[in-house]
Amino acid sequence: MYLWVVMATFIAILYSFNLPIRADLDRVHAETKASVVVTKFFAQHNAVKDYFNSQARDKTGQSSVTYYPGDGVNISADTEGTDVGTNVGKYLPVGFIKDEETISKVYCLENGDRASPQCTSTPDGSCCSAEYTGIYVVSYRQIPSRWINKVTKMPNADILGYMGKARGYGKSFGYTDNIDGKLVLSGGQMVQEFDTSGEKVGDAQFEYHEIFEAVKNDPDFENCMGENVHCLYAIQQIYG
Asked: How far is the C-alpha of 37 from the C-alpha of 30, rounded, in Å?
Protein backbone atom coordinates (compact mmCIF):
# COMPACT_ATOMS: atom_id res chain seq x y z
CA MET A 1 0.00 0.00 0.00
CA TYR A 2 2.83 2.33 0.91
CA LEU A 3 4.48 1.69 -2.47
CA TRP A 4 1.32 2.75 -4.34
CA VAL A 5 1.15 5.96 -2.33
CA VAL A 6 4.77 6.77 -3.25
CA MET A 7 4.12 5.99 -6.94
CA ALA A 8 0.95 8.14 -7.01
CA THR A 9 2.82 11.02 -5.43
CA PHE A 10 5.64 10.69 -7.98
CA ILE A 11 3.18 10.66 -10.90
CA ALA A 12 1.42 13.74 -9.52
CA ILE A 13 4.76 15.56 -9.34
CA LEU A 14 5.50 14.67 -12.98
CA TYR A 15 2.12 16.00 -14.11
CA SER A 16 2.74 19.26 -12.26
CA PHE A 17 5.60 19.94 -14.68
CA ASN A 18 3.31 19.41 -17.66
CA LEU A 19 1.14 22.50 -17.24
CA PRO A 20 -0.14 24.18 -20.43
CA ILE A 21 1.69 27.27 -21.68
CA ARG A 22 -0.11 30.52 -20.92
CA ALA A 23 -2.02 31.84 -23.89
CA ASP A 24 -0.81 35.38 -23.11
CA LEU A 25 2.84 34.41 -22.64
CA ASP A 26 4.01 36.70 -25.48
CA ARG A 27 2.16 39.62 -23.91
CA VAL A 28 3.71 38.89 -20.51
CA HIS A 29 7.21 38.90 -22.04
CA ALA A 30 6.51 42.13 -23.94
CA GLU A 31 5.18 43.86 -20.83
CA THR A 32 8.27 42.74 -18.91
CA LYS A 33 10.52 44.30 -21.55
CA ALA A 34 8.47 47.51 -21.49
CA SER A 35 8.86 47.63 -17.72
CA VAL A 36 12.62 48.05 -18.18
CA VAL A 37 12.06 51.39 -19.95
CA VAL A 38 9.75 52.66 -17.20
CA THR A 39 11.89 51.35 -14.33
CA LYS A 40 15.03 52.99 -15.71
CA PHE A 41 13.11 56.24 -16.15
CA PHE A 42 11.95 56.13 -12.53
CA ALA A 43 15.43 55.29 -11.24
CA GLN A 44 16.85 58.49 -12.69
CA HIS A 45 13.87 60.62 -11.68
CA ASN A 46 14.06 59.44 -8.07
CA ALA A 47 17.83 59.92 -7.93
CA VAL A 48 17.57 63.52 -9.13
CA LYS A 49 14.75 64.16 -6.66
CA ASP A 50 16.84 62.70 -3.81
CA TYR A 51 19.80 64.86 -4.81
CA PHE A 52 17.80 68.09 -4.74
CA ASN A 53 16.21 67.07 -1.45
CA SER A 54 19.71 66.62 -0.02
CA GLN A 55 20.42 70.27 -0.83
CA ALA A 56 17.70 71.61 1.44
CA ARG A 57 18.81 74.33 3.85
CA ASP A 58 18.13 72.24 6.93
CA LYS A 59 20.47 69.56 5.55
CA THR A 60 23.31 71.75 4.25
CA GLY A 61 23.27 74.40 6.97
CA GLN A 62 23.29 77.11 4.30
CA SER A 63 21.06 80.19 4.25
CA SER A 64 19.78 79.28 0.79
CA VAL A 65 19.57 76.18 -1.39
CA THR A 66 22.52 75.45 -3.65
CA TYR A 67 20.53 74.76 -6.81
CA TYR A 68 19.03 77.16 -9.33
CA PRO A 69 15.99 76.97 -11.64
CA GLY A 70 16.68 74.62 -14.53
CA ASP A 71 19.46 72.60 -12.87
CA GLY A 72 19.19 68.94 -13.75
CA VAL A 73 20.47 65.98 -15.73
CA ASN A 74 20.78 65.80 -19.53
CA ILE A 75 19.79 69.44 -19.92
CA SER A 76 20.90 71.17 -23.12
CA ALA A 77 23.24 74.12 -23.48
CA ASP A 78 20.33 76.15 -24.86
CA THR A 79 18.39 76.13 -21.60
CA GLU A 80 18.81 77.80 -18.24
CA GLY A 81 20.49 75.67 -15.60
CA THR A 82 23.52 73.53 -14.88
CA ASP A 83 23.93 69.79 -15.44
CA VAL A 84 24.39 68.22 -12.01
CA GLY A 85 24.78 64.67 -13.27
CA THR A 86 28.07 64.06 -11.44
CA ASN A 87 26.38 64.88 -8.12
CA VAL A 88 23.43 62.55 -8.74
CA GLY A 89 25.51 59.40 -9.22
CA LYS A 90 25.52 58.28 -5.60
CA TYR A 91 21.72 58.29 -5.55
CA LEU A 92 21.47 55.92 -8.52
CA PRO A 93 21.36 52.11 -8.29
CA VAL A 94 24.73 50.37 -8.50
CA GLY A 95 25.64 49.70 -12.13
CA PHE A 96 23.03 52.11 -13.49
CA ILE A 97 23.74 53.14 -17.08
CA LYS A 98 22.73 56.72 -17.73
CA ASP A 99 19.74 57.19 -20.02
CA GLU A 100 20.67 60.04 -22.33
CA GLU A 101 17.05 60.46 -23.46
CA THR A 102 15.58 61.19 -20.04
CA ILE A 103 15.74 64.81 -18.93
CA SER A 104 15.28 65.54 -15.24
CA LYS A 105 15.37 69.05 -13.81
CA VAL A 106 14.14 71.30 -11.06
CA TYR A 107 11.47 73.93 -11.69
CA CYS A 108 11.09 76.75 -9.16
CA LEU A 109 7.74 78.46 -9.75
CA GLU A 110 6.94 81.95 -8.51
CA ASN A 111 4.55 82.02 -5.52
CA GLY A 112 3.91 78.27 -5.90
CA ASP A 113 1.47 79.01 -8.74
CA ARG A 114 1.47 76.14 -11.23
CA ALA A 115 0.65 78.53 -14.07
CA SER A 116 3.53 80.88 -13.22
CA PRO A 117 6.96 80.97 -14.88
CA GLN A 118 10.24 80.00 -13.28
CA CYS A 119 11.40 82.46 -10.65
CA THR A 120 14.36 84.75 -11.34
CA SER A 121 17.48 84.52 -9.21
CA THR A 122 19.61 87.46 -8.08
CA PRO A 123 23.31 87.80 -7.25
CA ASP A 124 22.30 87.24 -3.62
CA GLY A 125 21.38 83.62 -4.27
CA SER A 126 18.93 81.17 -5.77
CA CYS A 127 15.29 82.23 -6.02
CA CYS A 128 14.43 78.60 -5.25
CA SER A 129 15.05 79.57 -1.62
CA ALA A 130 12.12 82.00 -1.48
CA GLU A 131 9.47 81.10 1.08
CA TYR A 132 6.54 80.69 -1.29
CA THR A 133 8.37 79.27 -4.28
CA GLY A 134 6.94 75.99 -5.59
CA ILE A 135 9.77 73.54 -6.18
CA TYR A 136 9.20 70.55 -8.45
CA VAL A 137 11.45 67.89 -9.95
CA VAL A 138 10.16 66.88 -13.37
CA SER A 139 11.41 64.15 -15.70
CA TYR A 140 10.38 63.37 -19.26
CA ARG A 141 11.44 61.44 -22.34
CA GLN A 142 9.77 60.34 -25.55
CA ILE A 143 8.30 56.85 -25.40
CA PRO A 144 10.43 54.68 -27.73
CA SER A 145 8.72 53.92 -31.05
CA ARG A 146 8.73 50.21 -30.22
CA TRP A 147 6.08 50.89 -27.60
CA ILE A 148 3.88 53.08 -29.80
CA ASN A 149 0.93 51.57 -31.71
CA LYS A 150 1.60 52.19 -35.41
CA VAL A 151 -2.11 52.72 -36.17
CA THR A 152 -3.40 54.77 -33.25
CA LYS A 153 -0.06 56.53 -32.54
CA MET A 154 -0.76 55.95 -28.84
CA PRO A 155 1.31 53.96 -26.32
CA ASN A 156 0.57 50.29 -26.90
CA ALA A 157 -0.99 47.82 -24.49
CA ASP A 158 2.35 46.35 -23.45
CA ILE A 159 3.75 49.51 -21.90
CA LEU A 160 0.34 50.72 -20.71
CA GLY A 161 -0.15 47.44 -18.88
CA TYR A 162 2.90 48.18 -16.75
CA MET A 163 2.41 51.94 -16.43
CA GLY A 164 -1.14 51.53 -15.16
CA LYS A 165 0.16 49.54 -12.18
CA ALA A 166 2.80 52.11 -11.25
CA ARG A 167 2.38 54.17 -8.11
CA GLY A 168 1.00 57.65 -8.79
CA TYR A 169 -0.27 56.87 -12.28
CA GLY A 170 -2.50 59.70 -13.44
CA LYS A 171 -1.37 62.03 -10.64
CA SER A 172 2.42 62.23 -10.55
CA PHE A 173 3.31 59.81 -13.35
CA GLY A 174 2.00 58.88 -16.78
CA TYR A 175 2.46 59.93 -20.37
CA THR A 176 1.72 63.25 -22.04
CA ASP A 177 -1.46 63.46 -24.07
CA ASN A 178 -3.62 66.12 -25.73
CA ILE A 179 -7.18 66.15 -24.41
CA ASP A 180 -9.64 68.91 -25.28
CA GLY A 181 -6.81 71.02 -26.63
CA LYS A 182 -4.76 70.80 -23.43
CA LEU A 183 -1.50 68.97 -22.79
CA VAL A 184 -2.16 66.76 -19.78
CA LEU A 185 -0.88 63.79 -17.84
CA SER A 186 -2.60 60.56 -18.88
CA GLY A 187 -4.83 58.56 -16.56
CA GLY A 188 -6.68 61.29 -14.74
CA GLN A 189 -9.23 60.61 -12.06
CA MET A 190 -13.02 60.53 -11.88
CA VAL A 191 -14.45 63.53 -10.01
CA GLN A 192 -18.06 63.91 -8.88
CA GLU A 193 -19.45 67.28 -7.77
CA PHE A 194 -22.02 67.56 -4.94
CA ASP A 195 -24.29 70.40 -3.84
CA THR A 196 -24.60 71.69 -0.27
CA SER A 197 -27.17 69.02 0.56
CA GLY A 198 -24.90 66.22 -0.57
CA GLU A 199 -26.77 65.48 -3.80
CA LYS A 200 -24.82 64.72 -6.96
CA VAL A 201 -24.53 67.55 -9.48
CA GLY A 202 -24.40 66.19 -13.02
CA ASP A 203 -22.35 63.19 -14.06
CA ALA A 204 -18.88 62.35 -12.82
CA GLN A 205 -16.16 63.75 -15.05
CA PHE A 206 -12.55 62.83 -15.66
CA GLU A 207 -10.12 65.41 -14.31
CA TYR A 208 -6.62 65.57 -15.72
CA HIS A 209 -3.49 67.27 -14.43
CA GLU A 210 -2.23 69.80 -16.94
CA ILE A 211 1.46 70.08 -17.75
CA PHE A 212 2.90 73.22 -16.13
CA GLU A 213 3.40 76.27 -18.35
CA ALA A 214 7.03 76.52 -17.20
CA VAL A 215 7.62 73.00 -18.50
CA LYS A 216 5.85 73.59 -21.81
CA ASN A 217 7.91 76.76 -22.33
CA ASP A 218 11.17 74.93 -21.67
CA PRO A 219 13.19 74.31 -24.89
CA ASP A 220 14.21 70.91 -23.51
CA PHE A 221 10.55 69.89 -23.52
CA GLU A 222 10.07 70.78 -27.18
CA ASN A 223 10.46 67.16 -28.31
CA CYS A 224 7.37 66.28 -26.27
CA MET A 225 5.18 68.94 -27.84
CA GLY A 226 4.73 67.55 -31.36
CA GLU A 227 1.55 66.09 -32.82
CA ASN A 228 1.03 62.41 -31.93
CA VAL A 229 4.09 62.57 -29.67
CA HIS A 230 3.85 60.99 -26.22
CA CYS A 231 6.44 61.22 -23.47
CA LEU A 232 6.87 59.47 -20.16
CA TYR A 233 6.36 62.16 -17.54
CA ALA A 234 6.94 62.25 -13.79
CA ILE A 235 6.60 65.15 -11.37
CA GLN A 236 7.33 65.40 -7.66
CA GLN A 237 7.07 68.43 -5.39
CA ILE A 238 10.00 68.93 -3.04
CA TYR A 239 10.87 71.51 -0.43
CA GLY A 240 14.11 73.44 -0.20
From this structure: 12
Number of H helices, E strands in the chain: 6, 8
Contact, 237 vs 138, CB < 8 A? no
Provide the residue type at 120 as one letter: T
Secondary structure letter of residue 97 according to DSSP: P
The CA distance from 191 to 174, in Å, is 18
Give the sign of the dihedral formed by CA 206, CA 209, CA 211, CA 213: positive
What are 39-53's pLDDT values in tens digits? 999 999 999 999 999
Say what the pTM is: 0.82
β-strands 182-185, 72-73 pairing = unpaired
Give all strands (DSSP E) within the chain, no chain letters.
72-73, 103-109, 134-142, 173-179, 182-185, 189-194, 200-207, 231-238
pLDDT tens digit sequence for 23-38: 444 455 565 777 889 9
